[in-house]
Write a structure and sequence with these properties.
Layout (H helix, E strand, L loop, with lengths): L1 E10 L4 H12 L3 E8 L5 E10 L1 H13 L3 E6 L5 E13 L6 H11 L3 E6 L4 E8 L1 H13 L2 E8 L3 E4 L10
Amino acid sequence: MKKKVFSILVENTSGVLSHVSGLFSRRGYNIDSFSAGVTADPRFTRMTIVASGDELILEQIEKQLAKLEDVVDIKVLEPTQSVTRELMLVKIKATEESDNVFFSFAEHLEQYHGKSVDVDLPNGVVVVEMTGNHDKLDAYLADLQAAGYEILELARTGITGLSRGTKDVRCFD
């Protein structure tokens, strides 16, 4: 199974999210990740959708998205030609096995360029903010568990991204 990241520029109107999500649900396609936000031009919203399937299904998704009335532009973000990021908040508790808990935790956090945004010393709980590509965030979570930390809660935004350079930038009057 293959994954594709679609960067979709849509008109910033009510109901556009319903139109896009309806396309996926009517055809039984799954959304692995979704994020959306207004662009520099408030008339438009950029949606970033990660979908998985075989090549035929992914091509169909792209073609069906392009047919939607609210869709202004659609790009597939190739890993080597784009920049993608995801935000993650993790609530972490040190287990009894963790020696020198917060010192080793701080070193671990620095290695991944994250930051603690809330610390509850009496309970040994820290909320961490981490931004990066999907693989980096997954690696951080695996390292946390291997180091003996317990993940109490986790929230991820979904991937957002842009293509590199200026070749395919759309400008609107």
